[in-house]
Write a structure and sequence with these properties.
2 copies of one chain form a homodimer. Chain A is α/β, with parallel strands linked by helices. Chain A is 51% helix and 12% strand.
Chain lengths: 300, 300
């Protein structure tokens, strides 16, 4: 049996997990990233190092972009040494970045014009699930894209939601997830800030809320960062400046009001302007004045 | 063995569940409510009907108030035919309404001045858990109040959080839970509204979000009401006009900003002013213009 070749562009926490999962699933995984050291490290694990997306495309019929945003997606596909010019007709691009739905729609058309298939496929679940091949994918695209993608999706994701046969629906569902995620992180910060202001024990408050109707996935996941005073960025404040920005841009196109998203976006921008943009997104609590946050000392 | 007497004032969905749970736990349960028919119905189940809180207080050393707000709490305790004047010194009042923490503190002092113990004890969990004796209680108060309350709490709650020895902490944690609950309901509505506006399938969106990081207890619980077009008020829009109002009043006392709570409060007030105040709180989605909500036809 010959191994199928697949390319992964972008070896951040998610991309590296995807690359390893695909390798474990039996694919020959070609990788590239602006950081040469992570590319070489993955090559030492049995992957194939590529100097550019164009060089990867010469060897792969399926290329997965796991970069941060639309701008980077544009660069790795259409930029100097981008993948598209080198991909054979009939090849498939799977786009995992969180991007504006309109960008996903246009990208699908631009790739179709080159004879390439596209799957709009944002991902969710975090680095641990990516490493385990158990991510969630929010996908949409034409039937032929799904046909080509089938084995690769099975190798990288635990759950693949198929949201329709047109591009953009995957990205719409992803940004709606980000709307809720962003509002919930900001609400978690607001609730914990009020508790601290009112002299409620922060650990007890976390315990009660996580067992009550006020709970959210984000409250449960992010508030421990605040309690432990650990603002190491697993996902940064500036990611939500970007993602809630995409949410608001999408709604603005049809002049649709999103009062909570707009408020949460302002909170993340306030945190970023105050110098916390590269800290963990739970650092949005630092915008609240007049409270004393838990300190690292004395915590596990 | 003689049965201990305990009184429950207010036989709404929560109060009736509490009364039945206590009866099942072996208490002789005395009840009163402004609606005589529910009092008589409970008497037919073996309870003791009381014509007024004062008449209840003559027979009970423990009285539990399960009314809607501070105003009703005031009336049943201190109003005409209120319980307090008739309670024997050393008796205990357990206050379950969601009230301002400052009201709970003052109430504790006023009852202490009469020789009565008070437990600040808001409840959470909904009617089904109340009926099963499995509610969550967020409590605070002095040690002697807990001593007197012990058997009753065990008979009515699955989980009793003890948040400190001063009144108000229970109410503070409860309103912080309501802050999150209210923001999450409004955010659920905003997210579903954007999905509908963008042509995303509403059922698929619910399925994806409930398995993703954007999930919340309220999203999972309330969005099915929207999908089924069933706005029967399990908890009404006007409850969150009140509860987020309490949250904001509490923060205003110390001039503390709560941007998301303030925004969500405006959304519930907009829904109430538009005529949806007595509908289910998920009806806050009706403030979003330019979308077509799911209809009841064709749904299970």
């Amino acid at each position: 049996m010959t191994q199928s070749n697949v390319g992964v562009i972008g070896l951040g926490a998610m991309g590296l997990g995807i690359a390893r999962s695909l390798q474990r699933s039996g694919f020959k995984v070609h990788v590239c990233d602006v950081r040469d050291e992570v590319v070489q490290a993955f090559a030492a694990e049995g992957g194939v190092a590529c100097a550019s997306p164009a060089m990867m495309a010469a060897a792969c019929d399926i290329v997965i972009t796991v970069v941060v945003n639309a701008e980077q997606t544009e660069t790795v596909l259409f930029g100097d040494q981008g993948a598209v010019a080198a991909l054979r007709p009939g090849s498939l691009v799977i786009g995992c970045a969180t991007v504006a739905p309109t960008f996903a729609v246009e990208l699908g058309q631009r790739l179709a014009d080159k004879g390439l298939a596209y799957l709009d496929a944002p991902i969710s679940g975090g680095a641990a699930k990516a490493a385990a091949g158990q991510m969630t994918m929010m996908t949409s695209g034409p039937a032929d894209a799904y046909l080509k993608a089938e084995a690769v999706l099975a190798g990288m994701a635990g759950k693949v939601y198929r949201l329709g046969d047109v591009h953009g629906l995957g990205s719409k569902v992803k940004i709606i997830n980000q709307l809720l995620a962003g509002v919930h992180i900001a609400a978690s910060a607001e609730a914990m800030a009020l508790g601290l202001r009112e002299g409620v024990d922060a650990d007890a408050l976390y315990e009660v809320i996580t067992h009550s109707a006020g709970n959210s996935w984000m409250f449960e996941n992010r508030v421990p960062h605040i309690l432990n005073a650990d603002y190491t960025p697993l996902s940064a404040v500036d990611i939500f400046v970007k993602d809630l920005g995409l949410v608001l841009d999408t709604a603005r196109t049809s002049k649709f009001p999103l009062p909570l998203s707009a408020t949460a976006h302002q909170m993340f921008m306030q945190a970023s302007s105050a110098g916390f943009g590269r800290e963990d997104d739970s650092a949005v609590i630092k915008i609240f004045p007049g409270i004393e946050l838990p300190k690292a000392q004395g915590k596990e």
